[in-house]
Design a protein that fits this description.
single chain; about 280 residues; alpha/beta; D-Maltodextrin-Binding Protein, domain 2; 9 helices; 12 strands; about 20% strand
Length: about 280
C-alpha cells in the first residue's frame, strides 16, 4: 500500500499540470499595431476569441502598421488600404477581412438626409458654405475632417474630392472626437469610420448618392479595404486570421464593417441607417 503522502503528491502534481495547461492557452499574447479602425474589431475579438489575447497599439495612419510588421515590432498589423507591393514582396502575408464604410455625419436635427458626391465635394472644398444650398436650413456649414495622417482622411479625399484639396475645414484628432463636435454643432458635418459609431452617439448618418450606409450594402460609395498583415510561420497568428475569415469571425466583423464575403452571411444591422 502506497503512503498517503504519495497519493496527495500525485494529485497535486496532476492539478498543477492541469492548471498550467489551461493557463498556457491564455498566455498566447498577440501584439497588434496599426489602424485604429481595425483596432476596434481586434478589441471585439479579444472578448470572444479564446485561443489568444491581444494588446493593441493603434496608430493614426495605416502606414504605421505596415512599417511595424516589416520591422518585426508586432505579431499582427492592420491597414485600412491595400498593402504596398513593397511590403508584400518582402514576404509579409495579407488577408482582406472586410470593407470599412466612411460615414458622412451631421447634427441629429439636421433635416438633410442625402448628399451627392458632388455636393460633398463642394462642401469639403469650401464651394458650398450654407445648408440652404443643398436643401437644408439657412445655416452656415462647418465641415470637420480627420487628421491628414488618418486613412479616413485620405480615402475620403480620394473618393470625394479627387484632385482637389480640403478647404474651410476644421481638423479634429483623434478621429472619434468628431462625434462630440457634431452633437453640439447644428451646422456641422464630418466624416468618420462607421466602426466608431454606437447607439449612444447621437449623430445623423447621411445617405450618399441615395445609398444608405448599411453594413450589408456594398453599393455605398465611400468604402476602403481592411487588411491584416503578418509574417508566415506563426501558427497562432494564422489561426486567428483563419478564424476572422470563418463564418463566426465574419459575423463579428460585420458588426462594424461590410464583410469580406458579403452576401454569404446574413446579419441584422442594429445600428440603423440614418440616426444612431
Amino acid at each position: 500500500m502506497r503512503p498517503s503522502g504519495f497519493v496527495g503528491g500525485l494529485f497535486l502534481a496532476s492539478l498543477l499540470s492541469f492548471l498550467s495547461s489551461g493557463a498556457s492557452a491564455q498566455e498566447v499574447r498577440l501584439h497588434y499595431v496599426g489602424s485604429s479602425t481595425i483596432g476596434n474589431f481586434i478589441s471585439d475579438a479579444d472578448s470572444v476569441y479564446e485561443a489568444a489575447w491581444f494588446d493593441l497599439n493603434t496608430v493614426p495612419e495605416s502606414a504605421g502598421g505596415e512599417l511595424a510588421i516589416v520591422e518585426g515590432r508586432c505579431d499582427l498589423a492592420g491597414v485600412a488600404n491595400i498593402p504596398s507591393a513593397k511590403t508584400l514582396q518582402r514576404g509579409v502575408a495579407s488577408a482582406l477581412i472586410g470593407w470599412d464604410a466612411i460615414a458622412v455625419l451631421t447634427h441629429p436635427e439636421n433635416p438633410v438626409n442625402n448628399l451627392t458626391l458632388s455636393q460633398l465635394k463642394g462642401i469639403f472644398t469650401g464651394q458650398i458654405t450654407n445648408w440652404k444650398e443643398v436643401g437644408g436650413p439657412d445655416l452656415e456649414i462647418h465641415p470637420y475632417i480627420t487628421a491628414v495622417e488618418s486613412a479616413t482622411h485620405k480615402v475620403f479625399r480620394s473618393v470625394v474630392l479627387g484632385s482637389a484639396d480640403y478647404a474651410g475645414c476644421e481638423t479634429v484628432a483623434p478621429d472619434a472626437d468628431i462625434l462630440e463636435r457634431l452633437q453640439n454643432d447644428p451646422g456641422g458635418i464630418g466624416h468618420l469610420s462607421f466602426s466608431f459609431l454606437t447607439k449612444e452617439e447621437k449623430v445623423k448618418v447621411l445617405m450618399v448618392d441615395g445609398q444608405p450606409l448599411h453594413l450589408t450594402n456594398p453599393a455605398y460609395p465611400i468604402t476602403r479595404p481592411l487588411y491584416l498583415l503578418w509574417w508566415p510561420g506563426r501558427s497562432e497568428v494564422a489561426a486567428f486570421v483563419d478564424w476572422t475569415l470563418s463564418a463566426e469571425g465574419q459575423r463579428l466583423v460585420m458588426k462594424r464593417f461590410i464583410g469580406a464575403r458579403e452576401g454569404t452571411i446574413t446579419v441584422n444591422d442594429e445600428m440603423g441607417s440614418l440616426v444612431v
